Amino acid sequence: MSPHSVDITITPKDRLLALDWREIWRYRDMFVLFVDRNFRTAYKQTVLGPLWFIITPVLSVLVYVTVFGGIANIPTDGVPAILFYLLGISVWGYFAGCVSATSNSFVTNADIFGKVYFPRIIMPLVAVTTNLLSLAIQLAIFAVFYIYYVATGTELTLHWHVVLFPLLIVLLALMAMGFGMIFSSMTTKYRDLQVMLTKIISLWVYVTPVIYPLSMVTNPKLHLAMSLNPVTPVMEAIKYSLLGQGQFSWLWLGYSALCTLVLLVIGLMLFNKVQKSFMDTV
Asked: In angstroms, rounded to a whole number, what is the distance separating the alpha carbons of residues 247 and 224?
């Protein structure tokens, strides 16, 4: 053996809550590579390419404005409908996209996992980062419309809480990652859970104040039930900070943070447990 050779022994994690940040940092180049791959292949071999990142939310907003604003007459608390729906769609789309991508971490990357070693936790991190790039594009569109409405005389209140916006997005990302890792760990054996998750996400949006303001829910019990949805306090805080409408509550944000911590702990434990033997079941 050469005196300069290095032996590396890869062993499974003994602790279910093990998370080696130094190892993740060593594989940062692979992390960047996966993010770039996911972003580039999102609309690969399409005519419009990256323009779909802009077209998709704009078309969704037009449908929402027509159906929910024009036909159903759902109020937006005095905020221009385009801004209300665009912000809601962008933030919810980020959360839902992170949950969906993270939940498929094992199944969609089984071939790579079977050939190359790297910290498996990188793939959920890649999922939330890739979707963050899409969110940035959509928020840029939101900023353009926001500036337009301000320039045309529309009164919009920008609260100081806007400085918390990055932290609120991080909270959503961690919540989605924890929830997604739980499903990712279970879908290695029970594939029908992928279908169940799709249904959960499609229904979850209706119990989250995305297409309507929480203020229109006047029934106290229903209002409380919807507030117990951990995404609701974060969504309301984002609307309050950027649009001046919504509800900002440190107590409810603390509740969302607690739910996020619980989801992350459970998700990481299941993720570390399953990654030891998932190649035998995928």
From this structure: 13
Dump pLDDT digits (tens) for 37-71.
Answer: 877 776 666 666 667 777 888 888 888 888 887 78
Phi and psi at 145, nearest 5°, equal -65, -35
DSSP string, 116-156: ----TTHHHHHHHHHHHHHHHHHHHHHHHHHHHHHHTT---
Instruction: Tell me the residue type at 183.
Output: F
Half-sphere exposure of 195 (CA within 13 A, CB side): 3
| Beta carbons within 8 Å of 46's beta carbon, 6+ residues apart | 52
User: Model's pTM, two decimal places?
Assistant: 0.86
What is the C-alpha separation between 262 and 43, in angstroms, rounded? 34
Count of alpha carbons within 13 Å of 61, Cβ hemisphere only?
A: 21
Rounded Cα gap, residues 227 and 208, in angstroms:
8
The distance of Cα 100 from the centroid of its chain, to the nearest Å, equals: 8
SS3 217: coil
Q: How far is CA 14 from CA 18, 81, 117, 182, 270, in A?
A: 8, 52, 17, 19, 13
Phi, psi (rounded to 5 degrees) for 19: -145, 100
Of 136, 166, 125, 108, nearest to 28 by C-alpha is 125
Q: Tell me which amino acid residue 117 is.
A: Y
Joined tokens for residue 136: 């940035």
